[in-house]
Structure formats: structure tokens, C-alpha cells
Write a structure and sequence with these properties.
The structure is a single chain. This protein is α/β, with parallel strands linked by helices and about 350 residues long. The protein has two domains: about 1-125, NAD(P)-binding Rossmann-like Domain (Rossmann fold, 3-Layer(aba) Sandwich), CATH 3.40.50; about 150-315, Dihydrodipicolinate Reductase, domain 2 (2-Layer Sandwich). The protein has helices spanning about 10-20, 40-45, 60-65, 80-85, 85-90, 105-115, 130-140, 150-165, 195, 210-225, 255-265, 315-330; strands at about 1-5, 25-35, 70-75, 95, 130, 145, 175-180, 200-205, 230-235, 240-250, 275, 295-300, 305-310. The strands form two sheets. It has a seven-stranded mixed beta sheet. Strands 2-1-3-4-6-5 form a six-stranded parallel beta sheet. A hairpin with a 4-residue loop joins strand 12 and strand 13 (about 305-310). Helix 1 crosses helix 12 (about 315-330), helix 7 (about 130-140) packs parallel to helix 12 and helix 8 runs parallel beside helix 10. The structure holds NADPH dihydro-nicotinamide-adenine-dinucleotide phosphate and N-acetyl-L-glutamyl 5-phosphate. NADPH dihydro-nicotinamide-adenine-dinucleotide phosphate (NDP) binds near residues 14, 80, 182, 183 and 319. NADPH dihydro-nicotinamide-adenine-dinucleotide phosphate (NDP) binds near residues 11, 37, 78, 187 and 314. Catalyzes the NADPH-dependent reduction of N-acetyl-5-glutamyl phosphate to yield N-acetyl-L-glutamate 5-semialdehyde.
């Protein structure tokens, strides 16, 4: 059994970790860490766990708590994980960080987009970007895994095979993505209150959303050539789900089957990637509550552009599910252990 602790267990991503890990055959949750609810029963914070989880939220010194576990998930705000990582801690535990602290390799890019000083830059190089479908081998060996962002997961998985095969103009990538409100976390903010979100759709972070450099960096590795993109996120009145629609210019003439083959070959060993049948396009409701990413595309013959649609559940493949998939790789478990859940419908 792998003993785990969850920091940020009272947030949306932390709670989703608890829900999924309860179902994992190889995991024992040792503690649920919180700053705001120390001493309170977890099932009081989330009534859904009444008679299921009898733990009380713990606080205190992470280094001390780390002695009780093998792995820590940090489902915490930006800047937290980089503040606790040190060599002593890493001798004790592995870390899967759900924040962006270790996702971006260039520290100046991190500072520019996050407006934060990085607290442990010496560990950025060794941290592995935890997109399992792309970095599986490195994740197996990692001590620190930087779990990808939610929009970035949906966007990178949709575009990676295309940039790798160089069948598109790398300067032409436009991603238009929509997210449910749980993507913004459980902390209150005016922008996320019911009346602000309900019956409304809005674009935000236009030209400057912090997932832009993360997508660019990973696609650049895939293409082995510098990529810059346009990325526009939208907030929609839904609890969960991300739908990303990407537009790219094709370099030459391709048939549906040519492109389908590129996707199918690239993802042939990937349990959670579903390339849908021709004419069927991803919908958030078909992946809700699951770790699947659904992808499909259509060629616009008039403009010779390819339109690629991808859908994930932001809290599962976009956060907690992917974090568990990473942990499974780090411990040599079946990659899908604890995650073989069918989507919830409706
Ligand atoms: N929501 C999503 O869809 C996704 C989220 N992420 C990332 O996952 C992380 C968690 O996100 P999410 O669950 O949405 O956020 P929430 O705001 O819902 O939860 C954040 C958690 O962190 C704890 N926390 C807050 N401040 C601190 C601190 N200074 N030190 C330690 N713990 C703190 C909070 O609870 P308490 O006060 O009880 O400690 C809370 O449990 C973030 O980095 C986010 O960017 C990544 C992908 C998708
Ligand atoms: C709807 C919404 O607000 N979504 C969040 C992204 C959540 C996520 O993936 O965050 P990290 O990269 O910070 O981990 C946002 O746009 O900031």
C-alpha cells in the first residue's frame, strides 16, 4: 500500500482526490491537511463523506507529517508547493503538485506570467511535467511531478500529434476553451458568485491567461520548434467540464482518414484518450466525472483549416484523476487503477 497525504484536501481538487482515492486498491490515505478546518471532521466539511470518511482534518508541520506517508499531493494555490519542497522532504516522500509551481522550466517565464518569485528554483529542472500520455517514462522515475493545468491538458492532447507530425502551420494555432466554474476553485470571489456566473458566458484572460506559456512550452517540445499560440478561455455556467476548440491551418491537402490515422497511432496505448468516430464530437457530459479525454476533428475544405474539439472533466483528467494516473506510474501500478470510472450522466 502507498500511504498518501493530501494538502489542500478541502478544495475542489483535493476533495476529488479523496473521492477517487477511496476507490484505489493500493492507496491508504493517511491524512487530510487543511489550514482552515484543523480539528474538524472531513465529513462536516463535505457532507457527502458522512459514514464514508471518518478522518479529522490535520494541520501542522509538513515535514513531520511527511514521515507518515510515501507521497504527498499538494492541491494548493500557486506558490505553496515550491515553499515546502527541499531535499530533506524529498528523501522522505514523492510529490505530485497540482499547482503550476513546477510546470514551467524557464523561471523568467514563470515570474512573468504568475507574478510570483519561485521559492525553490533548484528543483524546477528535475520536476517532470505530468502529462502521462506524453511523458510516461520520465514520470515513472520522478520525485516531483508537476500535474498539468486543466485547459492545458485539453489543449495539448488535442494538438500534440499534429505538431509532432508537422502537418499544420505552427504559427496558426488558435485555441478557444470553455470551463465550468469549479475550475476557479472553492475560494470565494465576486466573479464566481452565482449571479455573476449563471446565465452568462464570458471570455477572460484574453491574450494573457497563464496557461498560454504552459501550452506553448509543451507543444514546442513536441514540434521541436518554437510555438506561440492564441488562447482564449471562457467561463460558463456549469459546475465541471472543459471544451476546447482549436483551429489550425493545414500544410497541404489531407483526408479525414490521414488525420485520423495520426491521432489513432499516437494514442494507441493510451487508455484514457478516446478518438471519437467520424462525425461525433466531444461533449463535456460524455466525460463528466471520468478521467477520459475525448477528441475529434473536422477539416474545413473551404479554408483548409482543421477544427479539433477536445473535452475533459477539469477536476478529473484536468486535476485529481491525472494526479492519480501520475502516482500510478510512479509506483508501477496499472495506470488506470482507481480511475476506471464511467462518466456520470446526466
Ligand atoms: N479546480 C480545477 O479545476 C483545477 C485546479 N488546479 C490547481 O489545483 C490547485 C487547487 O485548486 P482548487 O482545488 O481548485 O482550489 P481551491 O481553492 O478549491 O482549494 C485550495 C485548497 O488549498 C488550501 N489552501 C489555501 N491556501 C493555502 C495555503 N496558503 N497553504 C496551504 N493550503 C492552502 C485550501 O484550504 P484550507 O484553507 O482548508 O487549507 C483549499 O483546500 C490549484 O493550484 C489549482 O490551480 C489544477 C487543475 C484544475
Ligand atoms: C475557470 C477557471 O477560473 N479556471 C482556472 C484554471 C484552473 C487551473 O487549471 O489552474 P492552474 O493552472 O492554476 O492549476 C483559471 O482560469 O485560472
Amino acid at each position: 500500500m502507498v500511504k498518501v497525504g493530501i494538502v489542500g484536501s478541502t478544495g475542489y481538487a483535493g476533495e476529488e482526490l479523496v473521492r477517487l482515492l477511496l476507490n484505489h486498491k493500493e492507496v491508504d490515505i493517511k491524512w487530510l491537511y487543511s489550514q482552515s478546518y484543523v480539528g474538524e471532521e472531513y465529513s462536516r466539511v463535505f457532507g457527502s463523506y458522512f459514514k464514508i470518511v471518518d478522518d479529522t482534518c490535520v494541520g501542522g508541520d509538513i515535514e513531520e507529517l511527511s514521515r507518515e506517508v510515501d507521497l504527498i499531493f499538494t492541491a494548493t494555490p500557486q506558490g505553496y508547493c515550491s515553499g515546502i519542497v527541499n531535499e530533506e522532504l524529498l528523501k522522505q516522500v514523492k510529490i505530485v503538485d497540482l499547482s503550476a509551481d513546477f510546470r514551467i522550466k524557464d523561471i523568467d517565464v514563470y515570474k512573468e506570467w504568475y507574478k510570483l518569485e519561485h521559492k525553490s528554483p533548484e528543483f524546477i529542472k528535475e520536476a517532470v511535467y505530468g502529462l502521462c500520455e506524453i511523458n510516461r517514462d520520465d514520470i515513472r522515475e520522478a520525485r516531483i511531478v508537476a500535474n498539468p493545468g486543466c485547459y492545458t491538458t485539453a489543449s495539448i492532447l488535442a494538438l500534440y500529434p499534429l505538431v509532432k507530425e508537422k502537418i499544420i502551420d505552427l504559427k496558426s494555432i488558435v485555441i478557444d476553451a470553455k470551463s465550468g466554474t469549479s475550475g476557479a476553485g472553492r475560494g470565494t470571489s465576486l466573479a464566481n458568485m452565482f449571479c455573476e456566473v449563471n446565465e452568462n458566458i464570458k471570455a477572460y484572460g484574453i491574450t494573457n491567461h497563464r496557461h498560454t506559456p504552459e501550452i506553448e512550452e509543451q507543444l514546442t517540445y513536441g514540434a521541436n520548434e518554437k510555438i506561440i499560440i492564441n488562447f482564449t478561455p471562457h467561463l460558463i455556467p456549469m459546475n465541471r467540464g472543459i471544451l476546447a476548440t482549436s483551429y489550425v491551418n493545414l500544410k497541404g491537402k489531407f483526408s479525414y482518414d490521414d488525420i485520423k490515422k495520426i491521432y489513432v497511432d499516437f494514442y494507441k496505448d493510451d487508455y484514457f484518450v478516446r478518438i471519437l468516430d467520424e462525425g461525433i464530437y466531444p461533449e463535456t457530459k460524455w466525460v463528466k466525472g471520468s478521467n477520459y479525454v475525448d477528441i475529434n476533428f473536422k477539416i474545413d475544405e473551404r479554408t483548409n483549416r482543421l477544427v479539433v474539439i477536445s473535452a475533459i472533466d477539469n477536476l478529473v483528467k484536468g486535476a485529481a484523476g491525472q494526479a492519480i494516473q501520475n502516482m500510478n506510474l510512479m509506483y508501477g501500478f496499472d495506470e488506470a487503477e482507481g480511475l476506471k470510472l464511467a462518466p456520470v450522466f446526466p
